[in-house]
Design brief:
- It is built from seven helices and six strands.
- With 212 residues, the protein is of the alpha/beta class.
- The chain has a single domain, classed as 3-Layer(aba) Sandwich (Rossmann fold), CATH 3.40.50.
- A six-stranded mixed β-sheet has the order 2-1-3-4-6-5.
- The radius of gyration is 18 Å and the shape is globular.
Length: 212
């Protein structure tokens, strides 16, 4: 009976979004729209390091594919990047930190090693989230934890989180990975944009590396 009800709800949800413009799924929607305010045209010679298929986050900041170098696990380790000091204008990691098999501080320090002075680093991760693989799941980070890991390297541009308790009901009926409609009247849009600071599901920090 539960599966039947879930299928009916999911079918109704999808039917209600027909013809509507849509964005990312519920646990990315608010975060990506928020971070999109930092998009800008990047100089042609800019280089951005994408950690393990975080190219979408690089594009969100305005980098184009020709400027992106992807360092994907397991061929690359975030703890020992095969690049020289200060090679990149930006470093991004999207939902990677929770999967690190080692001290997250060491990985953060390594990304700043390869970042140029005044370069930007954007790391997104999660706080309240079910265990998930890729291949393993080790850590959770509040916004303050991300500040603790990064603040010694420069200035924080943006530090935050998004979430609310209703997301888990939404997820329980099978809608977590369904694209969210942009229409504000839609219940899915309400769930995806309501932000309760006591319930951060996704968290992020955007930093500018100090010049000294």
């Amino acid at each position: 009976m539960r599966n039947i009800i879930g299928r009916i709800v999911r079918a109704g949800f999808r039917a209600s979004t027909l013809g509507l413009r849509k964005g990312p799924h519920v646990t990315r929607y608010y975060m990506y729209n928020h971070l999109a305010q930092y998009i800008e045209a990047r100089p042609e010679d800019s280089r951005v390091l994408s950690i393990s298929h975080s190219e979408g986050l690089a594009r969100l900041l305005g980098f184009v594919d020709a400027q992106i170098t992807d360092a994907a696990y397991p061929e690359y380790s975030m703890f020992n990047l095969p690049f020289g000091n200060e090679e990149f204008d930006a470093v991004v990691s999207d939902q990677i930190l929770e999967h690190l098999e080692g001290d997250p501080q060491d990985a953060i320090d390594e990304t700043f090693r390869v970042l140029k002075p005044n370069g930007i680093a954007l790391h997104t991760t999660c706080f309240m989230n079910p265990i998930h693989g890729c291949p393993n799941d080790y850590w959770r980070f509040s916004p303050q934890a991300l500040k603790l890991l990064t603040v010694k390297h420069g200035d924080i541009i943006d530090l935050g989180g998004w979430g609310n308790p209703y997301v888990w009901l939404y997820s329980a009926i099978g809608l977590r990975f369904v694209p969210v409609p942009h229409s504000r009247w839609h219940p899915g849009h309400w769930v995806a944009t309501k932000n309760d600071q006591a319930w951060p599901i996704t968290t992020w920090v955007l930093m500018r590396k100090s010049s000294n």
